[in-house]
Structures are given as C-alpha cells and as structure tokens.
Design a protein that fits this description.
The protein is built from eight helices and seven strands.
C-alpha cells in the first residue's frame, strides 16, 4: 500500500515519495557499503549476516510507511450516552527515528480529545501514534501529524497532544547532552481556546 509520508490518505500525490523502492538486495548492498566506509570488512565472519539483520530491523523501524493512520480511526461508535468530556491516553511509549541522522527518538506521548457525537477505540489512538513514529521524523512534524489526523477523522471539539522524548542525535553524538528531553505539544479546539481544558490536560499528564 502506498501511504504518503506527510500523513495524507493513500491516493494523494506526494512528490517526496521515492519513485521506485530499492530491492532487498540493493538495501543489503548499501549496508555493506556503509560497513566498508566505517573502516571494517563486510566480508569478515562477524559481519556477514549484518546487512540482512539491518534490513530486517529497518522493516520494523519504518513499518509506518505501509500503514494508513487515518484508516485506523474510521471505525467509530456513537452509543456513548451523551459523553462529551475528555478522553485521554497517557504515557504511550514512543520509538521513532530522527530524519536528520537516522538514530532513535525515545519517549512518551500523551493524547486527548473531546468527542462530539462519536468516539473511537482507545487502542486506535495509540496505533495512530505508533504509525507516525515508525517513519523518519522530526518530533515537531510528528506531533502536528497526529493532532491533524485525529481532528480530520473524528471531528472532535478539540485535540491535545504532548510528546516528551530524548533524541540520540543529541545525546550520543554532537553536543552529547544525555539528560535533555525535547517537549512538543499541539492544541486544537477547546484545548486551544479554553485555558481550563489545557490545564486539566496538563494535570492529568501528571496523574492528578
């Protein structure tokens, strides 16, 4: 399935997508090239199977390109007895890859929405986050994509999301500041216009 990298539904033209996906053999050859460039011998015993392992790992790291986050939210439920308050998922583990250095982004996401006339299974919200995380990302873009997809699919009274994560491109290379976390947030609807809703969201993140 061809899923646009900017989060649009399949079928929407995306000029940034590659015209032809390389074969597994080409991907493994690229790994061997990187091993040789790093200064090692890709033909030595300990590295013979490394290209295959790396490609299999990449299939897992980037499986979000093969999924449609919007589709995850299309099955909704209207029998909610008039419930119109916040629905929140807290402390969702997040593993992504920095698009600038292709190293890990590790952290947690917190997401909430206020339904209007329909709700979605709570696991689907976590799934949307996972799909976007399993792509090359910046944290800012990922935060906006998640909020936008929930807004488009559910048309809620408001969406709130906060992501707190550590970037290995900052903690293990370059400036090497291991204890620095990056926090991004996006608020729409009532979370943006009503300071009390934003405050409730932040309080619930803290667990009270």
């Amino acid at each position: 399935m061809n899923v646009a990298v900017d989060g649009l539904r399949p079928g929407v033209n995306d000029s940034t997508a590659p015209s032809k996906k390389p074969s597994r053999e080409e991907a493994e050859a690229a790994v061997r090239t990187l091993i040789a460039w790093a200064g090692d011998n890709p033909a030595r015993e300990g590295l013979l199977d490394t290209p295959g392992r790396v490609v299999r790992a990449y299939e897992e790291f980037f499986e979000g390109y093969n999924e449609d986050p919007y589709k995850e939210l299309t099955r909704t439920f209207e029998e909610v007895e008039g419930y119109k308050d916040m629905v929140m998922l807290r402390d969702i583990n997040l593993e992504s890859q920095c698009e600038h250095h292709m190293v890990a982004i590790l952290g947690k996401a917190h997401v909430a929405y206020v339904p209007t006339n329909k709700v979605v299974g709570i696991s689907k919200l976590a799934r949307v986050i996972e799909i976007y995380a399993r792509r090359l990302q910046t944290q800012e873009t990922m935060t906006a994509q998640i909020a936008d997809t929930i807004t488009r699919a559910l048309k809620p009274a408001g969406v709130a999301i906060l992501i707190e994560a550590k970037h290995q491109c900052m903690t293990t290379r370059g400036i090497k500041k291991p204890d620095v976390a990056t926090i991004t947030s996006q608020f729409t609807g009532v979370f943006q216009t009503d300071p009390r809703m934003e405050a409730r969201f932040m309080q619930m993140i803290r667990g009270y």
